[in-house]
Specification:
280 residues; alpha+beta; Jelly Rolls; five-stranded antiparallel β-sheet; 3 helices; transmembrane
Length: 280
């Protein structure tokens, strides 16, 4: 015969087990949801890709391709437009950084203002969430640091929206305010694009048929002109079916099952009373 004390102990044990499982599930969800926060200076998801290109394009069509985490450098004259292109896939948030280095003897008298702009594969200008997109060269500085943190890339968007979509992203660096006597001032530029995975919280239903990657013309080893994708990732684009929301759905199902078992243990009653004979 089960005593009242043993039944109470069993109920307390069930409550403790359910509370422990619920706490573990909430901890797992919290750590998964905050793994990538909206940090204005996120760390790179890819390592250093080695030496990058040492020149930049002067138009969208001739933009120099960069891989994620790869730095590109170029030497030019103030007044030139410099272009690079890099890939960004679904669920990724890109951070573009640029450094403009001025000659030591010219930096102290420079009053130039520099700016970076980022465009998607449709050449739509994308807004920066954080960073210093435009900066004026300080009187005693030999370098100008610029940065732009883009919004998270979505897998699909409405036709009227200006949401960032998977594909190529063009970086344009130029001077926007320059005294006439400083036109043609030599400088050295360095650009780098890092990305982080924002997670399933930023994923939406739907997907593009193809990434927004316009083709550009390049010359192959044989001297013939071939078409290739501008800034296409080396390992290809995401298939679009996987998202961390599957983990959230499975975890929610487990917690719902535990809640059902716990509720049943509280409402099933105490069974047959001890003074009622069998068969009554």
């Amino acid at each position: 015969m089960v005593t009242t004390t043993s039944r109470r102990a069993r109920v307390r044990g069930a409550r403790r087990a359910f509370a422990g499982a619920l706490l573990a599930g909430l901890t797992l969800f919290t750590s998964a949801g905050t793994a990538v926060a909206d940090d204005p200076t996120p760390s790179a998801s890819t390592g250093d890709e080695g030496p990058g290109p040492t020149e930049a394009g002067t138009t969208f069509r001739t933009a120099t391709a960069l891989q994620q985490g790869q730095s590109g450098t170029a030497q030019a004259s103030a007044g030139d437009y410099l272009y690079w292109v890099f890939p960004a896939d679904t669920g990724q948030r890109a951070t573009v950084r640029a450094t403009v280095r001025l000659p030591q003897d010219e930096a102290k008298r420079s009053a130039s203002t520099w700016q970076i702009d980022v465009y998607d594969g449709l050449r739509r200008r994308q807004a920066c969430q954080y960073g210093h997109q435009t900066r004026r060269a300080a009187a005693d500085a030999t370098a100008v640091e610029l940065s732009c943190v883009l919004r998270t890339v979505r897998s699909w968007s409405e036709p009227w929206a200006n949401d960032p979509l998977p594909g190529s992203y063009y970086v344009r660096l130029t001077v926007v305010n320059l005294p006439a006597d400083e036109l043609g001032l030599p400088f050295e530029a360095e650009v780098r694009a890092d990305v982080v995975d924002a997670g399933g919280a930023h994923h939406v239903d739907g997907a593009l048929a193809e990434p927004l990657v316009p083709g550009i013309s390049v010359t192959g080893a044989s001297g013939t002109s071939q078409a290739r994708a501008a800034g296409e990732p080396e390992d290809g684009w995401a298939s679009g079916w996987w998202t961390s929301r599957w983990l959230w759905t499975a975890g929610g199902g487990v917690l719902a099952a535990l809640a059902g078992v716990f509720g049943y243990s509280l409402t099933r009653g105490r069974g047959r009373p001890a003074h009622v004979p069998h068969g009554a």
